[in-house]
Structures are given as structure tokens and as C-alpha cells.
Design a protein that fits this description.
This protein has 212 residues and is mainly α. It has one domain. It contains ten helices and no strands. It is globular and about 55 Å long.
Length: 212
Amino acid sequence: MRTDDLIRALDADAHSRAMPLGSAWWVAAGAATGIAAVVFWLAIGPRTDIATAMHTMRFLAKFVFTTALAISAFALIRALSTPGASTSRAAAWMTAAPLLVVFAVVLELLSVPAADWGRRLVGSNMVVCLTFIPLIGVGPLAVFLAVLRYGAPTRPVLAGTVAGLLAGGLAATFYAAHCFDDSPLFVATWYTIAIAILAALGAIGGRLFVRW
């Protein structure tokens, strides 16, 4: 069978499921958000001064970064799960979150004395961040990998990696409500590492459970 014929067959199979693949992704997004919310509230919950923090730009900026990642990763993974679908536009939007973080870091470096850079980068919740973003995100990652199996991604490792980034963006959005470290330097370093852990787990999951 030629490659084009195989892709058309896979695409037809993906569209013939009991639930359309597009609908399955929205159901998965809702389920994953619910799982992340439950783990977040049971494990750590929001910071005690969140009412005050919500009036600061650094606190709010964290949610801009994390939701930008989650939204762009969601668009890309939907395309990757459908054989033959174009991924170029969705992949281009994946640069939005990193560019926003870089822009915020530059502003931070320009506005904060150099003597404070190290303190803001290390913060006070480094270990908590590296622990709870993966913990909150592992359930959603399992949900996203299950939907990838429901679809027919032709690049399972890449799709699994994006599933990890999506889970990481979702988990980091919840964790940001708890985190007392609002500096873009902290977010750019430790949030990135924590999300990368989920991306690596997603790549492994894609290779082991999604390949066909």
C-alpha cells in the first residue's frame, strides 16, 4: 500500500469512530482540567495572599505564559493526531509562549538591579515547583496519550512530546496560583524544567503506547 493510501485509510478510520476525534479532544481537555483541578486543590491549593497578588502584573503574567503554551499545544496535538492534517500553522503558534517569556525576562533584567537577579531566579519554591507541576500534570498527560491512541498520529513520539507540553501548560497554570515566586526569571527556569519533565514523559509514552 502506498503511503498516501495508508494515510487516507487512517484518516477514514479516525473519522469513523463512535465519537469524532475533534469531539474526543474537547472531552479530554475537560477531563484533564478536572483532574488537574482536583489534584491541585487536594495537594497544595492557591497561595494565601492570592487576592492581593492578583493585582500585580508579575503574578498575572505567569498565567499568560502558561495558558499560551496550553492553547498552542492543544491546537498542535489535535493536528498531529489526524493523519494528513497540516501542522505548520499550529507549530508556529508554539513559539508564542517562549517569546512571551523571553520578553518578560528581558524586562525583568532591565528593571531589577543585577544584584537581585540570582535571588529572583532561585526563588523560594524551586523544589515545590519541580515536584507539583509534574504531579498535577501526569493525570492529564495520561488522558491526552489515551486520545492519541484513539486517533492515528503518524509521528507518535512528537505527538507524545506535545501531549506533555499541553499537560505541562495546564498543570503550570494551576500551580501558578500557588507559587509565591512571580519573577519571570523563576518562571523561565523552573517552570520550563518542570514542563520539560512532562514533555519527556510524553515522548516516552508516545513511543511505547501510541505508535502503530
